[in-house]
C-alpha cells in the first residue's frame, strides 16, 4: 500500500508521446500517456503486445533508440533524492547515467539477454554498486552483493556462477538483485515473471512485495497477466493502441470495469472456479478497424464480464457426461514404464558415472478424442516425455503403443508414416517456421513429403482452406513469417500440423508465450479443431489455469515421474499430492474477493514498523 506520506509524488508523467519511423511510415507507439506514482505505491500497466507498455517504461529510462524512435512530447518529473525535482527529459547524458540504475532501476523481461554471458553474476552486480557509489571498494561491493543475494534467496555460489549456469528463476533473481543493488526509489519491472513457472513466479512476486515494504520503494509493474496485477498492484492502468483507456484502483477495475477492452481482458482469462465451453475474447466486447481503432458499436456480443462467463458456463452434469464417454473409448495411445535417461558424466575409461533421469518409469493411457493435460515445473520431464513419444528423443526403456502398435522400437524406415499420424506444435512458432519460406509453402511442404493430394494445385486449395480454418485470410499465402504477430504465427503452425491429417497432436507449451487474449483465441481454436477433425491431444503446459480449461484429464509431473492423475475437476477440487497443492496455491487468482483479501493483507503489513 501507499506510504504514510499520501500526497508525496515520486514520478509524474505528462503527455508522453513516442513515435517510430518505419518502412510503412510513422507509427505512434504511445499517445499522450499521463500518470503519477506516489512514494511506496505499486502501479500496474496491463495490455497486449503492441499496446505501448514497454515503450512507456523505456521512455522513462531514456532508452528509446533514436532513430528510429523519437520522444515527441513529454514531461517526466522525478523527485530525485540527490538532485531534487527534475524533468528527466531535460537531463544531460551524465546526469541520466547517475539516475539510471541508481535511483531508477529496471528489471527486463528476458534475463538471459540482459546479463553479460562472459562475466559472473557477482561481478556484474558489484560493478553497478561501485559505479553508483563513489568511494565504495570491491570488498564493500561484494559484501553488499552477497547480502542482497540472501534477500532475494540466492545461494552464495550464484555470486561465482555465470548466467548460463543458473535456472530461469535464479537469473531473474539476479536481475532483481542488480536492480536493487543501489536502493532505487523507483523500480520498473517489465514482464519479470512471464516465462516463469507458477511457483517461481510466486517467489519473485513475494520478494518484490517484501522489498517494496522494507525500502518504501515505488514499483511500476508491467504485465499482460491480470492475475499478477491483482496480487501486486495498488492501482492499474489499462493500455490499448498506445493510449491509457482506463485507470483506477485494482479493486475498481477488476470488480467494475468500464471500458470494453478491459472487460475483454478480464473475461478471456481461463478461470479456476468454473469450466467454460468457450473462452470469451476481446472482440466479443468491441469492434476495431484495420488500424486497431475502436469502433463504437452497441451490438457487440457481450456487455459485461458476467454475461460473457454465464453464456459459456459448462454445467457439472455436462462435464460428468463427457467424462463417462471418454473412459468408454479404447485408448489411442498407451505408455508403459517409459524411461528417458541422459548421461551426465563418464569416467576416464568411458564408464557412465552419473545419469539424469528425465523420465523415470511413466505409465498412462490417452483416449480417443480427449485432451490429456501434462503439467509441472520446468525440468520435470514434460517436454522430454512428449518428444520421446514422437521419437524426437529415443526412449531408454519402456513401451509406447499407438493404435495397438508398439512404436517404441519402430524402424527408421517407418518413422515417416508415424510422423503423419502423430504431430507436434512447438512452443516458439517463429523458430518453427523457415524465415525464407512463405507460409503457404511451409504448409504445403509436409503435404508433398507425405504425398497428400495429386498435385500442387489441390494442395494449394487445401492450404487456403486451412488458413481460413485457423482464422487467417487465404490472401496471406505468399507472406513471410516475420509479417505476422506471435498469435498469427502459432495459428500458421497449427494449420501446418493439420495439413497432413494427423490423428494425435502434442501441444508443447504452445500458448505460453502469447498474450492472454491471443491465448484465448488459440485455445478456442484447438478445441474447435479437435471436434471437427476428431483429434486427440496431449497438452503440455506449466500454466494450471490453461490446463484446467482445455483438459479432460490431467497428469501432474515432478522429477520425471507422475505424482498425480485424474479428471481436471477432481484434481483442482481435491488435490492429493503435496506437490499439486503447492502448484495450485501459487496460481494468481484475481477475483474481486481475492483482491479484497490481498489489499487487506497488504494494509496490515504496511501498519507494521519498517525493518
From TrEMBL:
It comes from the Bacteria. It holds the Pfam family oligo_HPY. Residues 11-266, 333-584 form the ABC transporter domain. One of its GO terms (molecular function) is ATP hydrolysis activity. SUPFAM superfamilies: P-loop containing nucleoside triphosphate hydrolases. Keywords: ATP-binding, Nucleotide-binding, Transport. GO terms for biological process: peptide transport; transmembrane transport. CDD domains: ABC_NikE_OppD_transporters. The keyword Membrane does not apply. Belongs to the ABC transporter superfamily. This is Peptide/nickel transport system ATP-binding protein. It comes from Thermoflexibacter ruber.
